[in-house]
TrEMBL record:
It is an enzyme of class 5 (isomerase). It catalyses: N-acetyl-alpha-D-glucosamine 1-phosphate = N-acetyl-D-glucosamine 6-phosphate. It comes from Sinocyclocheilus grahami (Dianchi golden-line fish). One of its GO terms (biological process) is hemopoiesis. Residues 53-84, 121-168 form the Alpha-D-phosphohexomutase alpha/beta/alpha domain. PANTHER family: PHOSPHOACETYLGLUCOSAMINE MUTASE. Keywords: Acetylation, Carbohydrate metabolism, Isomerase, Magnesium, Metal-binding, Phosphoprotein. This is Phosphoacetylglucosamine mutase. It holds the Pfam family PGM_PMM_I. Belongs to the phosphohexose mutase family. The lineage of its organism: Eukaryota, Metazoa, Chordata, Craniata, Vertebrata.
Amino acid sequence: MPFVELDISQKSKLHPKPEGLTLQYGTAGFRTHAKHLDHIMFRMGLLATLRSKKTKSTIGVMVTASHNPEEDNGVKLIDPMGEMVTALWEGYATQLANAEQDSLLKELKDIIEKEDINMSEPASVYVGKDTRPSSASLSQAVLDGVSSLGGKTHDYGLVTTPQLHYMVCCCNTHGCYGSPTIEGYYQKLSQAFLQLTQNALNRTDDQKRLLVDGANGIGALKMREMEPFLRSEMQVVLSNDGSSGKLNHMCGADYVKVQQNAPQGMNMGVGERCCSFDGDADRIVYYYTDSKGCFHLLDGDKIATLISTYLKELLTQAGLNLQIAVVQTAYANGSSTRYLEDVMKVTVCCTKTGVKHLHHAAQEYDIGVYFEANGHGTVLFSKAAQKQIQDLVKDPNSNDERKRAVKLLESTINLINQTVGDAISDMLVIEAVLAIRGMSAQDWDAIYTDLPNRQLKVTVSDRRVIDTTDAERRAVSPEGLQDTIDSLVKKYKSARSFVRPSGTEDVVRVYAEADTQESADSLAHEVSLAVYRLAGGIGDEPKPLH
C-alpha cells in the first residue's frame, strides 16, 4: 500500500479540510453549505471504495442536499441492496470526515484493520448528482477519492436519488431487479404503469391529467425524460421545471407540506390533481383546491392509506393469505390509524421517527407499506410474498377474478421502487390506483378526515433531558412530564399529544391533535408550557397561539 498512501496524501491535499470544522453523518448523510464540502466528498469517495472492497459489491454515492436551499449540498452513501449505509459505517463516515489532514491516513488504516478489508479486492462505485451548481465539482471530488484507492467508478451524472439507489440494487442483483441504466428504469416503470392502467375503463383526458411541481430540481428533468415512455396514458403539466426558478424556493414537497399552500408558478383549476416532488425526488405530496378555493393536502398518511387499502383488496380477490402492515410514526394522524385498524382491518405498527426505522420495521411483514407524513416512503414485498404472487400468475387453474388481481399485484410490484422512497415511482402507483378505482382527488381525500393538529417547538438548554419510549409516544424523563401530558390530554376530545427531542438542535418538538383546531392549538400550548417548566426551557415562556 505505500504507493497508494503517497497518492492519497498528495490527492487529499488538493481537497483540504478547513481546520476546526466538524460534521456529523445523520439520516440524510452530510448536509451543509456547499463551500464546506470538498474534503468530505473526496473522503466519502475513499470510504465508498473501502465499503465496496468489504462487501465485494457496488456501492453508491449520491451528491445532493434534497429539500435544502440551493446553496447547500450534501452526500449519502448507498449500500449493496440500494438501502442506506449501516450505522457502524455512518460512524466511520463521521470519523473520516472530521480527521485533520495529517491524521487522515491513520483513520483510513484504522477502518481497514477494524473491518479486516482485503485491499487487493476490486472496488466499484456508482456516483450520481443533483442539479445544484456546486454538484459538478463536488461529485468530481468523490470520483477523485475513489480513483486514489484504485476503485472503478461509473458516473451517472444527473439522476434523482432513488434512481441511483435503483442502479446500485440492479447491479448487485445481477439484473434480477432490472437493468442498471436510466433507460432501463424508465422502461421497467412505464411498462408496469401501462399494464395497470389497461385495467382502468374509459379514462378521459381530464382523468389522465396531472399537474406536477418539479421543485426546480432533478425530478423535473427526469420527468421530462420519462414522459415519452408513458405514451398517452398520462398527461403531465410540469411547472417549476428548473428553467427559471431557484431549487426548492417557494416550491417543492417540503414547502407545500409546511406552508399548507400551493407552490408558486402552478395554475391549479378547481379539483385538479396536483403533486410536488422535493429537490432530489425522493418525496411526494398531493393536493387540490375545492370549489370554495380551500387548499387540501394529501400527505404521506393519505398515500399509505390509499396504497395499502388497494393492496389489501387485491390480496383478498387473489385469495392470498399474506399479512400487510402499514408502518407509521407518532406523527401519523390519529384518523388514519383508526381508519386502517378499525375499518380496513390492516395491521398498523408504530416506530421511531426516521426513514431507517420505518424501512426496517416494514421488512418484518409479507407486505410493509411505510410513508412519513412528509411524503417519503415506499412498499416492501418479502421474497416469500413475491414468490407466492409469481407462482399464482403462472397457475393455469385460477379463475378470472383471481388471475386479474394477481396480475395487478405483479405489475404493482414492478412499478414500486422498493429500495427507497421515489417520487416518480410513487406518483405512478398513486395515478394507477386512482385510475383503476375511478377515484378523483376529492374521493381519495374523503376516505377519512384528518384530526386538526399542531406542531410546536420549545427551546431547551439540553435536549437530552427528554427520554422517550413506546416509539417516542411517551416521555420517560424528566419525571412528572408524562403524567402532566396525560392529564392535559384528558381535557380534550379525540386528543393525544407527545414530545420528543429534535435529532438536530436543542429543541423539544411538541405534537398535539384534538377534535377542533382550537383544542389542538390549546393542548399544544399547554404541553409546551409543561416542557418549558419541567425540561429546562430557555428564553421566554411559550405564548398562547390565540
